Amino acid sequence: MTDGTANFVNIGERTNVTGSARFKKLILNDEYEAAVEVARQQVENGAQIIDINMDEGLLDAHYAMTTFLKLIAAEPDIARVPFMIDSSKWSVIEAGLKCVSGKPIVNSISMKEGEEEFLAHAKMCRDYGAAVVVMAFDETGQADTKDRKVEICQRAYKLLTENGFPPEDIIFDPNIFAVATGIDEHRRYALDFIEAAREIRDTCPGVHISGGLSNLSFSFRGNEPVRRAMHSVFLYHAIPAGLDMAIVNAGQLDIYDQIDSKLREACEDVILDRRDDATERLIELAESFRGKSAKDEKAAEEWRDWDVSKRLEYALVKGIDAHVVDDTELARQDADKPIHVIEGPLMDGMNVVGDLFGSGKMFLPQVVKSARVMKKAVAHLLPFIEEEKDESAKGKGTIVMATVKGDVHDIGKNIVGVVLQCNGFEIVDLGVMAPWSDILEAANENGADMIGLSGLITPSLDEMVTVAEEMERAELTMPLLIGGATTSKVHTALRIEPAYKGPVIHVLDASRAVGVASTLVSQTQREAFVEQTAHDYENIRIGRADKGHKPLSSLEEARANGFDADMALKPPAPAKPGLHVYDDWPLDDLREHIDWTPFFRAWELAGIYPAILEDDVVGESARDLFKDGQAMLDRIVEEKWLQPRGVAGLWPCRRDGDDILVEIDGSEQRLPMLRQQIDKRAGRPNMCLADFIDPAGDWIGGFAVCAGHGIDEHLARFKADTDDYSDILLKALADRLAEAFAERMHKHVRTDLWGYAADETLSNAELIREQYDGIRPAPGYPACPDHSLKPILFDLLGGGSGHNGPAGIELTENFAMFPTAAVSGFYFGHPQSSYFGVARIGQDQLEDYAVRRDVDLETATRWLRPNLD
Q1: Above 90 in pLDDT, residue 653?
Q2: Does the pLDDT value for residue 725 go beyond 60?
Q3: 107 phi and psi, to 5 degrees?
């Protein structure tokens, strides 16, 4: 498979008595609970639809279908995917439709009995709200050539749509037949399907194309490597042609580029009918691959026969949670105490995970999956541990973790917490917006061994200093760990460590957290580590004092060296000025504008998308993560988990020195901007955002977008299921959708609302590279580093900083946005406008800025502290 298959839907058929001997045996023996687990495994293994068929001569198909459907409908992790009701008996299909909520799929209807019955069945499906698979089959028989496939599907499309059937609920199956059979008439079967799919999609707007992939390789049954290769090569060519779903085991597909080159070429020759001797060549080559997968499949299943301790270790390393509760219970029954299961096989397994992670052989997404398994096991054991009042369950140590007051971002903190839990630490997570008093109280009540603070926005840095000061006032001595995107070793050394006599350690990322925490609870390593860290921080302070700063220009000199924009180039007045509110932007549109590279960085996987998927080191982990992200994104879009809301405004303005005066409701709102003061070499200006605005009159915009509304109920569900992996995955995807919304809204402003780039036709890759005119700097970022401008921006956008803020976004006291999946900023349209960093400013600009903002010097200092260091 390839990157282009992201929207391809896998239909699992292991719940089909004709597709799975095991499932058939379970149903025949009335072992429905075990059969439900087959469905669960299908969904966990990537099936996005499950095909359910009970057509077996020894079965009461009506009873089997309705019983099984009712059981799986009661399982939330199964019922989250659509059910495909599959039967050759219409009465069984109708019985199944009565048991399914949501939108089922009927497999299948056709015109083999004529148009009247075809339309009657279609009407019944429509009445039940079901989509339908329409077979390319008419009164004459199954379509085998391209022309017949297209003819039948076009005829069915016309009949259905003229009778009110929604095109998007039509799934055509133009019949995948076996190739490489040795029969000359079969040579074009695969190619005919691909070409027919392309024409059907072009001439029947809105429909989907499906097929039973296993039919293709029937000639090579028993030779799984060849069958997998044939399926992957076929999909590689069929998906771009229009195939968007198929009955396929997602775990039995190979990456197209990773298929043996000779085998891939031979499969391609057969599927695309490129050579007269293609079949003979593939048959000859196939023998050298025979039997390889049987061993692999056996190895994948035989772990279930291992000793329970080894099974638990395997499940932890592989992140498989399907059997962990049962295995944990077996281990508990064999153990003297329930805590021994944690201290024994579970911690043994997590030690393997920790070793693999520490050695770079395992990556963060896999570790978080392992943590999910561990948490489910521990959750099962906790009631038994509580019953025995076993106080020895503390593990390596207790860490109180919190995102500091005024800050609402917690993805990074949660990841660190999960990794630490994987390595035996007990985590007391205070969540977000935690005041220092709650942090200290929790540390005292839980007998904490250390405190970990996190923050994303720059005002959080001051709050961390406050926590350190209060820890000192309370005469605490435990270590204080500092982490988060805005933190740094230098800031920790300069600002936080001097405020607290206990150990203060900056932790760069999750991969370093385990080593730091483990060292701090070690009786032999702690003292030397603490002393060395304190020594390093002292050297940083001495180095800063001796080195001095790069010289600054005076504010007057910097202004004299400002950027001289050519105002003849400024864009015209907006086509649609004023406020524009969007309360439910389509999620599927935002999905197309996602920049995936930061998604992988959030999981500490280094690389640029899409190249990261083929990276020699992290490629496998990245592919697995991407697959999981796409699967969840499918649900986010299809089930509307999130409600994107946005506001954009365009207002007349003018420049007044380093300020921008925005005209609104008959008055002017002042937006003071900061100017670079670092000495520049000749020809390099000291930039300020106000330089891009015409003093004689101009236009400016603002926006606020949010993709986080609706997220809480899903996060609560994941938390209840001890599923940190899904929790973090959803937050990361919501952040990506918010950034995509910012990109999409900016495009909408340029091409429509402001309209200065009405003819813009940039691809998403070009949008990500910012190959357009104009910028959207955000308060708190380098060109506009003062977060306190957000309340002014929010007022301009028609709402304050409370619950009724623009796009439903609330501002905290430190100007963090909630929900966290939100972006806000300004629009500058001048083609010469560009991003830059204000960096360090002087005392003269600080004092000048305080006057322009009409605040005291202490407040201005607090707002701009990161730019004063």
Answers
A1: yes
A2: yes
A3: -125, 95
Query: SS3 for 616?
Result: coil
The helix-helix angle for 510-520 and 411-422 (nearest 10°) equals 50
460 is catalytic: yes
* Higher per-residue pLDDT: 793 or 366: 793
* pLDDT above 80 (res 538): yes
The label of the residue with tokens 């021994």 reads: 340
pTM score, two decimals?
0.62
For residues 1 and 232, give the distance between their C-alpha atoms in angstroms, rounded to a whole number.
6
In the chain, the amino acid numbered 861 is T
Q: Which of 141, 120, 140 is nearest to 132 (CA)?
A: 120
| CA distance linking residue 700 with residue 696, whole number of Å | 13
- How many angstroms separate the CA atoms of 697 and 662, rounded? 10
Q: In this predicted structure, what is the pLDDT of residue 1?
A: 40
Tokens of 65: 């279908």
What is the per-residue DSSP string for 558-595?
HHHT-----GGG-----SS-EEEEESS--HHHHHTT--
| Whether pLDDT at 4 is above 50 | no
- What does the pLDDT average to over 352-357? 77
Q: Is 583 one of the annotated active-site residues of the chain?
A: no
Q: Which of 460, 518, 801, 833 is catalytic?
A: 460
pLDDT digits (tens, 9 = 90+) for 67-125: 999 999 888 889 889 999 999 889 999 999 999 888 999 998 999 989 999 999 999 99
Confidence bin at 301 (pLDDT 50/70/90): low
The closest of 424, 268, 401 to 343, measured between CA atoms, is 424
Give the whole-angstrom CA distance, residue 192 versus residue 273.
Answer: 10
Do the strands 698-706 and 822-827 form a parallel or antiparallel pair, or are they unpaired?
antiparallel
CA distance 642 to 715: 12
Confidence of residue 835 (pLDDT cuts 50, 70, 90): very high
Active-site position among 51, 407, 658, 727? 407
Ranges of H-type helices in 389-458: 411-422, 436-445
Strands 578-582, 105-109: parallel, antiparallel or unpaired by DSSP? unpaired
> Is residue 349 within 8 Å of residue 315, measured between CB atoms?
yes
DSSP bridge partners of 655: 660
- The string of pLDDT tens digits covering residues 587-646 is 999 999 999 999 998 888 888 898 899 887 888 899 999 999 999 999 999 999 999 999
From the candidates 121, 237, 409, 580, which is the catalytic residue? 409
User: What is the residue type of 450?
Assistant: M
- State phi, psi for 707 to the nearest 5 degrees: -120, 20
Residue 581's Cβ-count burial label (10 Å; 0-12, 13-18, 19+) is: middle
CA 183 – CA 170 distance, rounded (Å): 33
- Rg (the chain; Cα; Å): 31
Q: What percent of the chain has pLDDT over 90?
A: 60
Q: Are the C-beta atoms of 18 and 55 separated by less than 8 Å?
A: yes
Nearest alpha carbon to residue 808 among 817, 796, 816: 817
- pLDDT (mean) for 543-548: 66
Place of tokens 């606020």: 704
* Pair of tokens at residue 412: 């990074």
Known active-site residue 217:
no
Give the burial string for 608-644 (b: 16+ CB within 10 Å, else e). ebbebbbbeebbebbbebbbbbbbbbbebbeeebbbb
**455 closest CA partner among 445, 446, 468:** 468
Residues recorded for the chain: 869
Beta strands in 231-374 (DSSP E): 245-247
**pLDDT value of residue 661:** 98
Cα(798)–Cα(807) distance, integer angstroms: 10
Q: How far apart are CA 409 and CA 432, in angstroms?
A: 7
Confidence at 580, pLDDT banded by 50, 70, 90: very high
